[in-house]
Amino acid sequence: MGNRIKVLIDLNVILDTLQLRQPHYPNSARVLAYAETGVIDGMVAAHSWTTLFYLYAKDQSADLARVRLTEILQFLTVAPVDQAVIEQALNLPYRDFEDAVQMMAAVRSGAEYLVTRNILDFKAGPLQAIQPVELLALLK
């Protein structure tokens, strides 16, 4: 897809946007807007979609969650989580296995960055984790 920056977007960035969480909403929403307009290639790890559906349905409704996720799938692609991702994630020195799976899904999908608000959780990874504001600064 050209020379656009390819990023894996952590769930907290999406939830900031969907739930209008302040003070994070403006920067997180801009990241998603850049993915929607093709400025960046945005991905979400396969296992995050189930969590996103659950949290959004709990906050709103299952019907609305289906609608919202369908909309998001129009501009964010699914980063596969397969046996290789799980095996490699098990070898990362992370306390939170879900974070390790995020990181390896990003790496195996060819992402240049993992965009998250929790960069400390990803320090030990093979890929640089950056905050939404840092990605926005790179794109200027």
Structure description:
The chain has 140 residues and is α/β, with parallel strands linked by helices. The protein has one domain: 5'-nuclease (Rossmann fold, 3-Layer(aba) Sandwich). The chain has seven helices and five strands; from the N terminus they run E-H-H-E-H-H-E-H-H-E-E-H. The chain has helices at residues 11-18, 25-36, 46-59, 62-72, 83-90, 97-108, 132-138; strands at residues 6-9, 41-45, 76-79, 113-115, 129-130. A five-stranded parallel β-sheet has the order 3-2-1-4-5. Helix 1 packs across helix 2 (25-36), helix 3 (46-59) crosses helix 4 (62-72) and helix 5 (83-90) crosses helix 6 (97-108). The radius of gyration is 14 Å and the shape is globular. The two termini are 20 Å apart.
Order of helices and strands: EHHEHHEHHEEH
Question: Mind telling me the CATH class?
Answer: Alpha Beta
CATH architecture label name: 3-Layer(aba) Sandwich
Tell me how many strands there are: 5
Determine the mean pLDDT.
95
Number of self-contained structural domains: 1
Quick gist of this model?
The protein is of the alpha/beta class and 140 residues long. Helix content is 51%, strand content 13%.
